[in-house]
TrEMBL record:
The chain crosses the membrane at residues 27-45, 51-70. Keywords: Membrane, Transmembrane, Transmembrane helix. The keyword Transmembrane applies. It comes from Iris pallida. This is PRA1 family protein.
Amino acid sequence: MITRSMLVEQLRDYQIRSQNKRDVVGALYWGLLFCLLVIASYVLYFRFHRFSAIIILIGMLIPISIQIRHRKLARKRERRLLLPLSM
């Protein structure tokens, strides 16, 4: 017989697995974007100094924005886990 606690455990396991997949894909995407910005700024440095500086600043802001977003999602996830599961 399937009990409520077993269903809750299965649901939480599924949510954790799906969240981890999204985190990995997001990290790879932002890492690739950061690498492309660094390479572009290096290539453009010799001709377009200001444009290169703007690209470097954007590249520095990406990790900061990712960290802020990650903290917001963590707080949201914690609040979600505190809510009672109704069936």
